[in-house]
Amino acid sequence: MPELPEVETVKRGLEPVMDGARFERVEARRQDLRWPLPGDFVARLEGKTVRGLGRRAKYITVDLSSGEVLLIHLGMSGSFRVTQDGSERRAGKYHHQHDQHLTHDHVVFHMSSGARISFNDPRRFGSMKLVAREALDAEPLLRALGPEPLGDEFDAALLARACGGKKTSLKAALSDQRVVAGLGNIYVCEALWRAKLSPKRRASTIATRSGVPNERAQALVEAIRHVLNEAIQAGGSSLRDHKRTDGELGMFQHHFAVYDRESERCPRRDGGIVKRIVQGGRSTFFCPACQR
DNA sequence: CCGCGGGCCTGAGAGC
DNA sequence: TGCTCTCAGGCCCGCG
Question: Is A282 one of the catalytic residues?
Fold first, then answer.
């Protein structure tokens, strides 16, 4: 599920209760996430202090005093919930909801800050991995990732170069984490709408044959940054799974122009009716009138 | 090298 | 009510 804005929201929620705190006790209730947790997962965390949190694409990184980095991916349905240890019992009307949540709490961190941080993931597409900090650059999961779309180095020239020569669609190219890291189905659709570009357009058409970016590349970069920044400000989008670490919902889904809005009117004055097509086995939403 | 499709899981919602 | 079917925001892998 979670794309860059949701992951960033989760990271910001974890920061105040994890940064500077120590893992006092770790429960690995289920080891069979996307990849099995290592047998010594708990031992490598307990007693270690968190030196800082970061994010790379859709991964959260937790820097540990041991010199290792805890790499976390939320997959499709992963979420964290932070409660105060010992006071996680709730009033009766939340009881059922709480029980349901417990059934998929696969990993629980008890921090010296007093926080109980549970990782919940019904579909278990999420993953956690411990990597030596100096091996992070060589880490296969991170190695092939493209530029951070909100980073300084991401610009029209870079995007055009990554898309140059690609015969595939713009939708597929932007969904490819090697081209730009952190976008998923929602934000690709929204960014293409904002840039007025059709998801079906060939990726290579945002550059000249020699790879020089054109005005489409520029519009796309602006649109990607804008959409991501707005979504982060809104705490991400909550459709099915995403919730913030405090249990509150993100709000950006109320600002979608096209995503999940099949048959509705495009918000643009000269827009048409939002259409849903399938590309690469996934739904694409776009306005055929204003996206060209 | 590239692009495509399958598979991994569970849950929610639609349709019968 | 309950069954079956489809779909879901990700990513890796193997195939051609």
Answer: yes
Nucleotides of C under 7 A from a protein CB: 7-12
Q: Among residues of chain A, what percentage have pLDDT more than 70?
A: 95
Report yes or no on whether pTM surpasses 0.70: yes
* Per-residue confidence (pLDDT) for residue A147, from 0 to 100: 94
Please, is A170 exposed, middle or buried when counting C-beta atoms within 10 Å of its C-beta (0-12, 13-18, 19+)? buried
Q: Quote the CA–CA distance of A221 and A127 in Å, as a whole number.
A: 30
Distances (CA, A) of A237 to A25, A171, A198, A248: 31, 20, 23, 11
Catalytic residue, candidates A11, A58, A116, A171: A58
Distance CA(A29)–CA(A189), nearest Å, equals: 37
List the nucleotides on chain B closer than 7 A to a protein CB. 2-6, 8-12
Where residue A166 falls (left for φ over 0; alpha for ψ -120 to 50; beta otherwise) is beta
Distance CA A189, CA A198 (A): 9
Are β-strands A115-120 and A79-84 bridged in parallel, bridged antiparallel, or unpaired? antiparallel
Question: In the complex, which nucleotide's C1' lies nearest to the CA atom of residue A169?
Answer: B3
Rounded Cα gap, residues A113 and A21, in angstroms: 6
pLDDT in tens, A75-100: 999 999 999 987 655 433 344 444 44
In whole angstroms, give the CA distance from residue A206 to residue A157. 10
Residues near A253 by beta carbon (within 8 Å), at least 6 away in sequence = A237, A238, A239, A259, A260
Identify the residue whose tokens are 């900090």. Answer: A133
pLDDT tens-digit map of A3-61: 999 999 999 999 999 999 999 999 999 999 999 999 999 999 999 999 999 999 999 99
